[in-house]
Design brief:
The chain has 758 residues and is an alpha+beta fold. 28% of the residues lie in helices and 22% in strands.
């Protein structure tokens, strides 16, 4: 029996309260440490049979599966355990999922980059197959028969010749005494034996999510806990010159104020610094903070003005820059003259604005820190907390709650470090709670970018030469103060991997200095790169008098594998042998979505138009068609979105469709209203009033997602839907109005009065 099941709920709860452990719904994790300083494992590892870190089986037949990735709406807490359960041949109704703490023994726990399934599909299969192997061995031993004569059905081992059956729970103790099999001994299921993989399952947490029982970071509680709200420097790198807290201390419930040291450049995941107001509740902390009087030294970034910075980026984009991919001789073709097309595109800073702002609870005592946080990366939280507190990483325990959205922001644990620092300073548990204004003003923003595109067109209207140049402050600037160029990992995102069949091609990247924290947001650099490339392709199609679909297919060309010789192309961390860049797959989804959407066959009304875009990101091929309607006032409606997806093997189809439906809503916000600006280094936006996200009446009315049946290895699904949606949406606006969108968001373009006449 597990520790949790060996005590009654009431007595266990009472014991946890008395020892100061955290209570989080169905799972209770006391702070227990091994003699070697490592935290105890989850209940799965305390089960009777636990052949590995991910699965355990109790004598009552309960299968405990560890979810080591963070759950923020993608149902990864369901999909990865589903793979384990399938290979184990477990009855899903008897599976209990336990959330892992941060621990390097689980491998990578950064739930980011759309690679959870890709990176851990084989690991999960082997974890389940190992347990199944041991159960079969135990049953054969008990019956004194050959293991080869035994098989499994959900939760039982069967002796096929005699029909005898033994339940998993009855075999757990005997199986636990057997050696764990080597990888070579495992026999994984064939595809036609799968019960769950490819068929899917609703979210394990669905009932709790729908009934309000699901517990998020804000729900974490501890005895003797206080709350903190932090007044951060308004400009990145700013410092407190002086402050007056006298009025703040008069607010009922406010206990004290504490200064937090500013970060030492580069910022990475360090606390921003500032003045924390400590109180008995969030209301008092927020009200006390409003009463603070702080004089700031804003530092050199006070000169940052986003309007001027935009001009600088665009000027840089018009100048020769660092070449990151080159084929043929672009310059000689341009020198010949003929029809030359060029265009500038621009995408501003974007904020994450997940529904749950930053929050974390920390308890520092006896040289150890225990954290409860909605984090995408518990190991990064351990790392920054250990550095800030000056303790060993092994002495930081990070429990992961459900996340109320993440989009990449919660993989950066600056807010977790704040709670830990404050807990050490005041000697009691502290919950740091960010307001929505904090969330918007102190984000790690998706980079602002300017792109310059140029093409020489042949007699058939197809490019004979293609030049593209992007300029954006790089994400690496949060780790390197001197970084000004994009790194290969972000240049690969829709830029160095432009898939068009053009003999003369050059891809460049110009320098840009960051004045705010830059971070990854859902689909990252793919947003602005796909917007530029796919919009320019649409422009060229119309300039040539061609149908945009036919023209796009011509650009993609015949099926081939892109050769990245002499290009620094990380391929999202995957092997190019396993995951080659295959233009045939991009072509297939483009043709598929056109057929499904009825491209060229549907009669559209006044002010209506269709736009198309195709893009590969996170190893997944996606093509999207967006239908828009634009009225005389310039108001946009999105009646329908069609998306075709080739993500290789899809473990959980319905959840995958949901990710692309969500991407259409997310992309609507990015394209229509997403814009962060700054004046004198201070962010101008503060809440949904001036950084709106799509409301239900603005979101696509109907989104159809078509999954390609593929035998290719699994790829990402959380992010790839956003880039082609944004570009297709803007192309649809042109089809509807004749007005080309070259700068986002579209709210800054007057779309009223004139509709398309072609």
């Amino acid at each position: 029996m597990t520790l949790i099941e060996n005590v009654s709920r009431r007595s266990f709860l009472k014991g946890m309260v008395s020892t100061g452990a955290l209570v989080l719904g169905a799972c209770y994790y006391p702070e227990i440490l091994r003699a070697d300083g490592l935290p105890t494992d989850t209940p799965a590892d305390r089960a009777t049979l636990h052949p590995n870190m991910f699965v355990g089986i109790d004598t009552d037949g309960t299968v405990q599966i560890v979810a080591h990735r963070s759950e923020m709406g993608t149902a990864i807490r369901t999909s990865l355990p589903l793979v384990v359960a399938d290979e184990l041949d477990a009855d899903w109704k008897r599976v209990k999922i336990d959330q892992a703490i941060g621990d390097p023994r689980y491998g990578d726990q950064n739930t980011d980059g759309s690679h959870s399934i890709r990176s851990f599909y084989d690991v999960m299969r082997q974890a389940g197959a190992s347990a199944r192997f041991m159960l079969i061995q135990a049953a054969a031993q008990q019956w004194n028969v050959r293991p080869a004569d035994c098989a499994t059905e959900p939760h039982v081992v069967i002796h096929r010749p005699s029909g005898r059956r033994l339940a998993y729970g009855d075999l757990a103790a005997r199986a636990a005494k057997l050696p764990v099999p080597k990888k070579e001994q495992l026999q994984l299921k064939s595809n036609n034996q799968w019960r769950y993989i490819g068929k899917g399952m609703p979210s394990y947490d669905l009932a709790d999510l729908c009934t309000g029982k699901a517990l998020y970071g804000m729900d974490a509680r501890m005895d003797n806990m206080v709350y903190a709200s932090i007044e951060h420097p308004p400009v990145l790198g700013g410092k407190v010159q002086s402050y007056d807290n006298s009025e703040a201390l008069k607010v009922a419930g406010v206990r004290q104020t504490i200064a937090i040291d500013p970060f030492k450049p580069p910022p990475a995941f360090q606390p921003l610094g500032g003045i924390a107001v400590i109180a008995d509740n969030t209301w008092s902390a927020f009200q006390g903070r409003k009463k603070l009087k702080v004089v700031w030294d804003n530092g050199p970034n006070e000169t940052y003005d986003s309007a001027q910075y935009k001009k600088e980026l665009q000027e840089t984009a018009r100048k020769p820059a660092k070449v990151v991919r080159s084929e043929g001789d672009v310059d000689s073709v341009f020198a010949k003259g003929g029809k030359i097309m060029e265009a500038d595109y621009y995408v501003p800073l974007l904020a994450h604005t997940s529904m749950e702002p930053m929050v974390a609870l920390a308890d520092f005592r006896d040289g150890r820190a225990t954290i409860w946080a909605p984090t995408q990366n518990p190991q990064a939280a351990q790392d920054i907390v250990s550095k800030e507190l000056g303790i060993a990483k092994e002495n930081v325990i990070c429990h992961v709650t459900l996340l109320g959205g993440g989009f990449g922001r919660k993989s950066k644990p600056d807010y977790v470090a704040e709670a830990a620092v404050l807990s050490k300073k005041i000697g009691r548990p502290v919950k740091v709670v960010w307001t929505r204004e904090d969330d918007v003003k102190f984000d790690y923003y998706n980079a602002v970018a300017a792109m310059y595109m140029r093409a020489a067109l042949g007699a058939d209207g197809k490019p004979t030469a293609w030049l593209q140049r992007s300029v954006f402050p790089p994400i690496t600037s949060i780790f390197d103060v001197d970084a000004v160029y994009g790194d290969p990992g972000h240049l690969q995102q829709g830029w160095t991997d432009v898939p068009f069949d053009i003999a003369n091609l050059r891809v460049e990247n110009g320098p840009a200095k960051a004045h705010v924290r830059i971070g990854w947001l859902r689909s990252v650099a793919n947003i602005y790169h796909a917007f530029a490339v796919q919009s320019f392709a649409d422009e060229l199609a119309h300039a040539a008098g061609r149908d945009p679909l036919d023209y796009l297919l011509d650009l993609i060309g015949k099926p081939r594998t892109i050769n990245f010789k002499d290009v620094d192309y990380p391929n999202y961390g995957a092997s190019l042998q396993t995951y080659p860049w295959e233009t045939g797959r991009l072509r297939r989804v483009t043709e598929m979505v056109a057929e499904k959407a009825g491209w060229g066959k549907r009669k559209l009304g006044k002010g209506a138009g269709l736009g198309i875009a195709a893009h590969k990101s996170f190893l997944t091929y996606v093509a999207t068609i967006v239908e828009v309607e634009v009225n005389d006032q310039g108001e946009i409606k999105i009646p329908r979105v069609d998306t075709a997806v080739d993500a290789g093997l899809v473990v959980n189809p319905e959840i995958t469709r949901a990710q692309f439906e969500g991407a259409a809503v997310f992309g609507t916000s990015v394209a229509k209203t997403g814009e962060i600006t700054a004046t004198k280094g201070t962010i101008n936006q503060s809440n949904f009033s001036d950084y709106p996200v799509a409301r239900i009446d603005e979101a696509p009315l109907q989104t159809n997602v078509y999954l390609v049946d593929s035998s290719a290895p699994p790829a990402g699904v959380g992010e790839p839907g956003v880039p082609p949606f944004v570009a297709a949406f803007c192309n649809a606006i042109y089809a509807a109005t004749g007005k080309r969108i070259r700068e986002l968001p579209t709210k800054n373009t007057n779309l009223g009065n004139k509709n398309k006449g072609e």
